[in-house]
Amino acid sequence: MRVLGVDPGLTRCGVGVVEGVPGRPCTLIAYHVVYTDPADDLSLRLLHLDRSLAELVAEHQPESVAVERVFSQHNVRTVMGTAQASGVAVLAGARAGLPVQTYTPSEVKAAVTGSGQADKAQMTAMVTRLLRLAEPPKPADAADALALAICHVWRGGTRSKLAAAADRVRRGGAR
């Protein structure tokens, strides 16, 4: 399974692509950071992010997209930009006809490090180790995006199977 992970941000949006199967180490395909200029108009920044993500989806041909779910922060201005970037990332996956799954930061941390309370340094170290990289991916936004993709490979497959089984039960066939 090839997954494109997105750590949404309006100024820096991390994108990581990995391939793998649940229970096995993933393989790094690529990572990128999409930058937008804070001095630019919001509409232009979102358009740049949209075009960049569409290009990355077309280039890397993922089978699914994993996006970090926006959580409440104290800085409303920051959370608004992150939420807008998250919406663009979800739309990029949907527009390409791909399944899109969102994960909380705690879910990603738990999947990658075993602790939902892991800090940035622990996350980056585990991503580096899990992908067998010579050096940590930089900046941290790229490492976070790769962690999202790894989380989806490991948890998304199981989550998809459970959702499909629940859907079958709802439709009256428990096969």
Molecular structure report:
It is a single chain. 51% of the residues lie in helices and 18% in strands. The protein is of the alpha/beta class. It has a five-stranded mixed sheet with strand order 3-2-1-4-5. Helix 4 packs across helix 5 (140-170). It starts with a strand and ends in a 5-residue tail after the last helix.
**Helix count?**
5
DSSP strand tally: 5
Order of helices and strands: EEEHEHEHHH
Average pLDDT level: 90
Structural class: alpha/beta
- Biggest sheet strand order reads 3-2-1-4-5
Task: Report the C-alpha radius of gyration, rounded.
Answer: 16 Å
Helix content: 40-55%
Largest sheet: 5 strands, mixed
Topology:
Layout: E1 2-7, E2 12-19, E3 27-35, H1 42-60, E4 64-68, H2 76-95, E5 100-103, H3 105-113, H4 120-130, H5 140-170
Parallel strand pairs: 1-4, 4-5
Antiparallel strand pairs: 1-2, 2-3
